[in-house]
Amino acid sequence: MSPDTAPPVIDGKESVEFQIGIHVVDLFDILASRALDSTRGAGAGRRYQLVHNNPLLRHMRDATTNMLRGSPSSTTIASAETECAQRPRASGESRGSGDSSNQPADASPGRAQDGAGISLSEVLDSLQYVVDYRLKGRQQPHLDAGLMCRLCDALLLVMALTQGSFLHKRLTDDARTAYFLFGQFIEEVAEFQHCVGQKPTPDLRRALKLHKRITDGGSEDEKLALVTIIRLVLACLPAGNDWRDLVDEHEQRALAPTVDKYARIIDDDTASYHMPVTGGAVFPPPSLYFDRTVEKLVAMFKTDVVTGLAPDQVDERRAFYGRNELPRPVHRPWWKIVWVQLTDLMVLMLCAAIIATAVDGEWKSSIVLGVVVVLNTVVGAWQEIKAGKALSALENLGTTTAQVIRGGTLEPIDAADLVPGDLVELNEGDAVPADLRLVSCAQLEIVESVLTGESVGVAKDPRAIKVRTRQLPLGDCKGNAFMSTMVSHGRGRGIVTRVGAKSEIGKISVAINRSSLTVRKTPIQRKLTRLGLWLVLLALSLCAVIVISGVSWGRKFVPIFITGISLAVSVIPEGLVAVTTVTMALGVRRMARRNALVRTLPAVETLGGVTVICSDKTGTLTEGKMGMCELVDASGVLFEVTRSTSRNPNEGEVSYRGHVDSEGAQVVHDAQKHSTAAADLSLVVCSLCNNAEIFYDAEAGQWSSLGDATEVAMALAAQKAGLAKSSMVAAHSGAGAAPNASESSSSSSSPGDAPSLVLLAENAFDSDRKRMSVVFEARSGAPAMPGKRCLVTVVKGAPEEILSVCTHQAGSASGFVHHGMAADGGPARRPMREVTASIVACLGGADSAIPLTRELTQAAGQACEGMASRGLRVLGMAAKVSYIDADEPITEEALGLAWAEGGLVFTGLAGLIDPPRTGIVDSVRRCHNAGIKVVMITGDHIGTATAIAESIGIIREDQPSTQRAISGAELDLLSDEATALLDPFPSVFARVSPENKIRIVRALQQGGHIVAMTGDGVNDAAAVKGADIGVAMGIGGTDITKQAADMVLLDDDFTTIVAAVEEGRRIFDNIFKFIMYLLSCNSAEIMLFLIASVLNLDLPFTTIMILWANIIADIPPALSLGMDPPELDIMDRPPRNPKRGVLTRGTTLILVIQAFFMAATTFAVFLAAVLTPFGRIVLPNYNADAPDMYVPSIFHQGNPEVNANENMSPHIAGARSVAFGVLTVLQLNQAFLSRSIDVSLFKTGLLANKWMVGCVLLSFGLYVLGVYVPGLNDWLELVPLGWVAWLVIFGAVLMQVVFSELLKLALRTIARRQRLRAGHQ
Q1: Distance CA 1204, CA 1093 (A)
Q2: Where are the alpha helices (DSSP H) in 55-166?
Q3: pLDDT tens across 859-870, in order?
Q4: C-alpha torsion angle, residues 1030, 1035, 1040, 1045 (rounded to 10)
C-alpha cells in the first residue's frame, strides 16, 4: 500500500461502538480512582462507599461493561475487539483471558484496574482518534443510545475537572479536551444529541462552566468553537432556552459581549451549527498496538513495511507528536537550595536570636550565632547540590542514532528525529531508539532488564496478540520493542508507535520528575521540626514570663523585653543542627567503608528506623548468577555440582550424592564418588546443546562467559566434568585460551583426543516447542558401519516437552567419561574417540536404553516436581543416535524438527538455581531478631520464590506471620486499602510488575511502616523514589535508579543493607543521646535564668557567657556522643515506633530531672556567692582586709530602668564566674552520663569512647583559657578563679555522679518490675 493511500473503513458500527465502550469504561474507572484519591483522609471502608456506592460511577461503568459482554452483536464485537488501541500498563498487569468467567466480578474486558497505567489524556486522545477516523463526516450518524448516554455522562464529569488552589481554580487540559469532544459528538451522532437534550439544565450548567472557559483566554478560533458548542447544546434542548440558561445569573452580564460577538459571526456563517474544521492529517494516538495486525498498523500510520515513510511526511508528524527526547530533569537552582536551608525551622530560630541579640547590642553574641548559621547552611547546601543529580542519568538513556528506512533508503539518523510511522531496523547489539511495533523478526531477542529487571532476552514475534484486555504485562508484549532496551540476538524491523515522553521509559521519566518536585522529609527531619516547634513555644513562654515578672517588679517594659529575648536565646541549642549534620556525615563515611554509599545525609538516620525491607531476589538475596547445582539421571541418581556459579571450570566437580525416591525426596546413601552412563550422557547434552562460551580473559585476568545465563550454567557444569564443547566438536572454536582447564584444547597432540563431532544443524529454542535440538555427525569413534553415517542428536528443554518426544530412557550402566586417576589426583578423562564411541553405544545399543513406560515417566515427573519444590529451574535432556546412507545428501530441512525431535532417549534432569548469597541466612535472621520484616519481591514464579524464601529464612515454619505469599495477579485484584489491611502482610510477592512495587510501598507506608525498597532497573526507579529509603544496586543497577536512590549498594548484597540498618540504629541512638545531652544542658540554663528573673536576682550569666558555654560545653561533647560505639543489643530489639517523637514522656522527665539538678546546684553556688563573701573568696587575688562596697541582697539593686547585666562589681563578677564554672563542668560530666539512660557509668566506662575523652578535655581546656587568658576573659566577662572555687566545682561533679547513679538504679528497678508484671500476665 502506498503511504499516501487513505486507510479503508474495515469495520462498521459494532466496531466503533466497541471502541467507544472500552474508552467509556476507562473514563469511569479513572474518575473512580480520582474519587478515591480525593478521599484519602477517610477510612478505608468510608472511601469504598464514597466510590463504589456512587450511583453514577458504578452504574455507568457496569452498564457499559455488560453491553460489551452481552450485547446482541457480541460476536461482531468480539471480532472487532482488537481494533481498539490498546495500552499496557507501565507495569506488568496479569494477563486477561478470553473467558470472562476467569475475571473478577467487577472486571471487564479492557478494564483499567483502578485507572492506573492509563492516563485520562490518553483515553481522550483515543476518543478523539475515533471521532476523526471513524465518525467525522457523519460516517456513523447512529450509535447505541445507551452507550451515547453513558459517554455523555462521562464527558460531563471530565469537563468539570479543575485544578489549582481554592482561590485560583482553573480548568484542566483534560477538561478542555473533553469539552470539544462533547461538541463533536453532538454534531456527528443523533443519539448523543438526544441524550444532551434530556439532561437537566443545572447539570449542563455545572459541567459546561462557560464563564471559566471563555474568561480563561484562548485564540479567536478557540473562542469561536466555544460559542459554537453553546449553539449546538441549545439546539439539543427544548425550545425556549438560550445561552443564559447555561450560565449562572451573576455571570451573565460579564459574558454577554463575548457571546454576542461570536454569535453574530456564527449567524453569518452559512454552514451554521458545525464545529470549526481544524484541518491537517489524522494521526493515531501514541500506543503499543500489540493487538493490531501488521496490515492494519501500516494502514493507520500510512507507512510501508519495505520503503518506510516518505520524507515529506516527517515534518508534519514531528510537529504533531514532538521530538523523540526524554523530559529533562528539573534541577533546583543553587539559590533555592540555600533558601531551603535558611528557612529550616531551627535555622530560623537562630536567625531570630541573631536579630534579638543585635537589637540588644550584644554584637559578640550575634557574630557567634551568625557563624553557626553560615556553617550549617554551607554544609547542608553542598550536600543538597551533590544530591541534586538525582535524575541526570535519564538524559543519557536515550540512544543517539537509529537505522531508519525512509523513501526506501536505509540511513542512520539522530534518534531524536524519529517520528511515529518510521520504519526502524534492529540488529544484534543495537539499542532500541523508540517504542516500536515489530513487523518482522529473525530470531530477534531483546533484553528488557531496564524495564522488567530480567536479564534474559525476550524472544519477539510480530504476530498480533488477541486478548480481551487493554492491560498486558510488558514482558508479554512479544510484538513490541521498547526504547532503551538492547537487542541481544537476531534482527528485525518495527514501526515507531511512541516517542519521547509517551514511550514507556518516558512515562517513568515523567513520573520521577513529578515526584522529585515534592521534597519528602525524613523521619528525623520531621521529628526535629516538631522538637523545634516545642522549643519555639518554650522560648516565647519564657520570654513572656520574664517580661511579666520584670514589669511586676517595677521595671520598665522595653529594657526587660530585650532581656527576655536575650534570655530566650538560651532555649535554642545552637549546636543541635550542626552536630546532627556532622554525626550523619560521619555515619555516611562509616557506611561507605561497608559498601553502602549513602547519597543523602538524613537517609542515614532513617535507615535505623526501617521496619520493612522489600528486597529483590535476583542479585541481592541471591548471587545473581545461574548455576546448575543438581543433576538427576534417568535412573533417579542424584549428583551435585559444587562451585556451580564459579566461572572457572577448574573449580568444582560433579559428585554422587544418592538416589531420589518415588516421591522426589532425596535419599543420601553414601559419599562414594561414581558416575553413571545416564549422568554422563546428560552432561554431554549440557555441553553440545549449547551456544554459550566460557573463556579466560587475559586482559582482565579472570574467567568470563558469553551467552544466555542458563546455557552458561550448563556449559560450566559440563566443563567441570571434563566435557568442554571445544574438545568434542571440531567446528567449535573458543573465545579464548583456557589455561589449566580440565579439558584439552582442540589442538591436542593426541590423535585419540581430537574432536570427533561435526555440527550439522541446529533447531533453535522457541516458546511454542520449548525445546532446542542440535544434530552432529560422529566422524571418528563411532562403530564402523559400511555405507552409513552416524548422526548424534542432543535435545534440551522443558521436562514435560522432552518426555513427550522420548520413547526410551538411558539405562543404569556405569559412567564412561572418566577412568582411573589423573596426575593431579583427580579423575582422568578418557580420550574423545572413546567418549564418542561410548555415547553411540549407550544411545544405540539394544541393552543400553530401555523403553520409557508410563511408570518411568511418572517417576521422572515426580523427580522434576521435587526439584522444583526446592526452588530449582528444571530442564530435561535427551539424545539419540541415527544412521543414514553415506551417499544421502544432508540438508537442514532434512534434519528439521520432525526428524530431530522424535524417538529420543531420555537421559536426565538438570536443576538450575541462582543460589543464595553467602551469609544471607544469618542476615535475615538478624532482621527477624531486630523486628524487621523482610519481604521478597521477584519476577519469578511463586513456587520458586517461596522455595528460596524458605531456604533463607524469610518464610519460617515457627512464625505464621511470615508464611504468606501472593502473586502480582492477585495483588492487581486488591485496592491499596485492601493491600494495606492484609494480615499477615505477605513475605513474598511473585511475578510482580513495577506498578505492583509502588503499590506495595504505598500500602506499607499507609500502615505506618518505614520502608526500604531495593531496585536495579529503570522500572524500579519510581518505587525506589517513593520508599522511605530507596536502595539501588551499584553493580547491576541502572544509572537512573542509582541517582534516584537514597543509598547505593556497592556489592549488591542484602547483608550490606542489614549492616546499614545497624549503622542507622547506631546513628539514631547517638542522635538521641546528644539531644538528651544538649537539651538537659540548655534546660539547666533555662531553669537557672528563670529562677533568677522571677526572684529579681542579678542574672547568673551574661548572654556571651551563655553562648560560650553552648559552644564549648555543647558542640565537642555532643560530637563525641555522635561517635559513640553501638550498644550490644542494638540488633536484638524491635524498631522504634515511627510515630514516636525523639523524646517520650519518660525521657523528657529524666531530662528535666537531670537539668534541675544542674540548675539547682549552680543556683545554690551562685546564691551563696551573692549573699555571702564567698563571691570574693573564689577570686585568686582575694584580700580579706579590702573593703567590699557590694551590699548582699537577693534582689536586684541596680537602676531598674537599665539592664541588670550592668551590675558588674567584683563581688557579682566572682559569683557569676564560679557559677559559670560549676555549670560548665557539670555539663561536661553530663556527656559521660548521657551515654546510657539506665546503664551505670561504671559499666559503660569512661574510656570506651575515646573521642569523648578527647572532646571533653578539649572543652575543659577552652573553658580554662576563657577564664585565665587576659583579654579573652574580659571579652567573655569572666574573672580568674582561685583554688577554693575549683574545690566547689569538683565537689559538685561528685554530687552529680552519685545523683545520676541513684536515678539509673531507680530506672532499672522500675523496668525490672514492669518486665516481671508483663511475664505474670
Answers
A1: 10
A2: 55-70, 74-80, 120-130, 145-159
A3: 898 888 888 888
A4: 20
Tens-digit pLDDT profile for residues 720-760: 988 888 888 875 433 333 344 444 333 344 555 667 788 88
Give the pLDDT confidence of 581-614 residue by residue, as tens digits.
Answer: 777 777 777 888 888 888 766 777 778 889 999 9
**Residue written as grid cell 564459579:** 646
Residue 567 vs residues 345, 543, 564, 1075, 1102: alpha-carbon distances, Å: 19, 7, 5, 20, 9
DSSP state for residue 431 in the 8-state scheme: B
- Helix-, strand-, coil-residue percentages of the chain, each rounded to 5: 50, 15, 35
pLDDT of residue 561: 65
Banded pLDDT at 1093 (limits 50, 70, 90): confident
d(CA 110, CA 101): 14
- Smallest CA-to-CA distance from 754 within 841, 840, 834 is with 834
State the average pLDDT over residues 815-819.
76
Let me know: does 1274 contact 1114? Beta carbons within 8 Å.
no
- What backbone phi and psi angles, to 5 degrees, belong to 242? -135, 180
Residues with catalytic function: 616
Comparing C-alpha atoms, which of 439, 485, 489, 432 is closest to residue 459? 489
Whether residue 73 contacts residue 14, with contact meaning beta carbons closer than 8 Å, is answered with yes
Report how far apart, in Å, the C-alpha atoms of 835 and of each of 502, 643, 772, 1162, 1182 are: 58, 25, 23, 94, 107
* Helix (H), strand (E), coil (C) string for 941-987: CHHHHHHHHHHHCCCCCCCHHHCCEEEHHHHHCCCHHHHHCCCCCCC
Local structure of 814: helix, strand or coil: strand
pLDDT in tens, 1264-1299: 998 888 888 888 888 888 888 888 899 999 999 999
Which whole number is the average pLDDT over 1095-1110? Answer: 76
Q: Which residue type sits at 270?
A: T
- Provide the residue type at 1007 as one letter: G
Cα(239)–Cα(226) distance, rounded to whole angstroms? 21
Residue 956: half-sphere exposure toward Cβ, Cα within 13 Å: 14
Pairing of strands 933-937, 988-990: parallel
DSSP at 470: S
Residue 723 and residue 816: Cα distance in Å, rounded? 12
Contacts of 413 (CB under 8 A, 6+ apart): 401, 402, 404
Instruction: Give the integer Cα–Cα distance in Å for 476 and 472.
Output: 7
Report the distance separating Cα 1101 and Cα 1105, nearest Å: 6
Query: Helix axis angle, 1054-1094 relative to 601-608, nearest 10°?
Result: 100
Give the type of residue at 931: G
Q: Say if residue 1262's pLDDT is above 50.
A: yes
Least confidently predicted of 268-272, 570-574, 1219-1223: 268-272
- DSSP-H helix ranges across 870-930: 897-900, 920-929
Distances, alpha carbon 907 to alpha carbons 347, 873, 1003, in Å: 74, 17, 48
Q: How far is CA 1058 from CA 264, 610, 617, 1049, in A?
A: 74, 10, 15, 11
